[in-house]
Amino acid sequence: MSSSSVKDAQTLDKNGQEIKSVGFQRFGFDCEVSLDSLRSLYLRSHYVVSASESQVQELDAKEEGHGHLTQGPNAYQSKSIFHPETQSISYTTLSRFAPVKLLPPSSRKRILVTGGAGFVGSHLVDRLMLLGHEVTVLDNFFTGSKTTVSHWVGHPNFELVRHDVVEPFMIECDQIYHLACPASPPHYQFNAVKTIKTSFMGTLNMLGLAKRTKARFLISSTSEVYGDPEVHPQPEDYWGHVNPIGPRACYDEGKRVAETLTYGFHNQDGVDVRVARIFNTYGPRMNPHDGRVVSNFIVQALRGEDMTVYGDGKQTRSFQYIHDLIDGLIALMNSDESRPVNIGNGDEFTIGEFAELVREIVEKVQAEDGVKLERRVQIVYKPIPTDDPQKRRPDTTRAKNSLQWQPRWSVRMGLEEMVRYYKAKMSEGSM
Ligand code: NAD
Ligand code: UDP
């Protein structure tokens, strides 16, 4: 299949319906944007379905002011050109930004996103920017990168600040999404003490800011608060099973104390809080070297290297696509639900099965792009890391009832898009 026929491939949701937009209208906050506008910010143009000029004019007539593209997606991408002979890369910055919704001042929010240059943060920033809000990103670039948000630098609604959340920060804002914290086991274990400091002091500082500004505060907590769970699937009222001194404790206990702190400010000081317990999420812009399973498997399969399954591969995880997570985070922020809410996809795989699925999807995408594989990549087994949870699957009843939120993306659809994203990064030399 040529790249032009890739354009014709539809993106279908779990029920076989075509996905044309993400987000939805909830709690008076419209968060819907077209999938094409969003994709144009992270996927190379030949994989993005582009509207013809006449279609665009038709759309313009119908949906005045909505954040869709008015030029081909190519016009909204920064360019990087790799020069193999000198092993160098040249960048061009954008002179034009993707169109953002023009909101009346009464609906425009000033939103702070800590960790906004990371994987989850950068997708949240894209969505909030396209929706027309004013966004400030606070990041120390430990695991994030300026390149994830560089397409917004210079936009009047956007500000990027290099700052470590363990230090206090002053700003006027209406909503705080507090995401800053390394999330992959190799990264959060790299400096365990710093991870605990980030979780505790970073959350303390951001809650202090929320208290002063009366901003609503959302923290990205994690399924790791359930540790190696003895209850399956995990509902929010399960207290967890965490080793407090193991190698994962800096993250697990850090997030647990961050939640305790959050409810401390809520109960003592009336801070308006939201707690999202995020389950394994994957998608474009995941740092390919951060050691998490989805990025490891895709990169290994694309490079023709052995895929490394840790342990016997019988441990399970359930994987959620990034756009579903962003829908859930925005819905939670704007809802009245102040209890913790699990946000994840219930499709559970053993890691062994998952390796096979990734290999099959990489082979499919390569075949569609006309790439002939020299050999089938092998799946090899390596020792399992200490305290690796044996099973994990969210009970998302609360998210369904309180937010009317359910994941839409099948794991397969999300993986196909992520494979295309990494392929494009490899071919442009930036990975
Ligand atoms: P990421 O590592 O890609 O992003 C984290 C961002 O925080 C990076 O940009 C990093 O530079 C920044 N950061 C780290 N320490 C900081 C500090 N002290 N000061 C300022 N910035 C700092 O990880 P991610 O996957 O995007 O995760 C984002 C949030 O979501 C984290 O809080 C994580 O715990 C949570 N989460 C993610 C997942 C997932 O599967 N991706 C699952 C559960 C929870
Ligand atoms: N894993 C694996 N191979 C890898 C990376 C991870 O088999 O190359 C396993 C890991 O041991 C765990 C699961 O995949 O059982 C998910 O790991 P990840 O680091 O992505 O997230 P977490 O353990 O925090 O859920």
Automatic annotation (TrEMBL):
Organism lineage: Eukaryota, Fungi, Dikarya, Basidiomycota, Agaricomycotina
Q: Which organism is it from?
A: Suillus luteus UH-Slu-Lm8-n1
Composition bias of kind Basic and acidic residues appears in 388-398
NAD(P)-binding domain ranges (all copies) = 112-418
| Listed name of the protein | UDP-glucuronate decarboxylase
Molecular function (Gene Ontology), one example:
NAD+ binding
Q: Which PANTHER family match?
A: UDP-GLUCURONIC ACID DECARBOXYLASE 1, UDP-GLUCURONIC ACID DECARBOXYLASE-RELATED
User: Where, subcellularly, is it found?
Assistant: Cytoplasm; Golgi apparatus, Golgi stack membrane
Task: Please give the SUPFAM superfamilies that the UniProt record associates with this protein.
Answer: NAD(P)-binding Rossmann-fold domains
GO CC field: Golgi cisterna membrane
Tree of life domain: Eukaryota
Q: Which UniProt keywords apply?
A: Cytoplasm, Decarboxylase, Golgi apparatus, Lyase, Membrane, NAD, Signal-anchor, Transmembrane, Transmembrane helix
What pathway is it annotated to?
Nucleotide-sugar biosynthesis; UDP-alpha-D-xylose biosynthesis; UDP-alpha-D-xylose from UDP-alpha-D-glucuronate: step 1/1
Kindly give the membrane topology term recorded for this protein: Single-pass type II membrane protein
What family name appears in the similarity comment? Belongs to the NAD(P)-dependent epimerase/dehydratase family. UDP-glucuronic acid decarboxylase subfamily.
Region: Disordered; residue ranges are: 384-403
Q: Which cofactor does it need?
A: NAD(+)
Q: Look up the EC number in the record and give it.
A: 4.1.1.35
User: Which EC class is this protein assigned?
Assistant: lyase
- Main subcellular location: cytoplasm
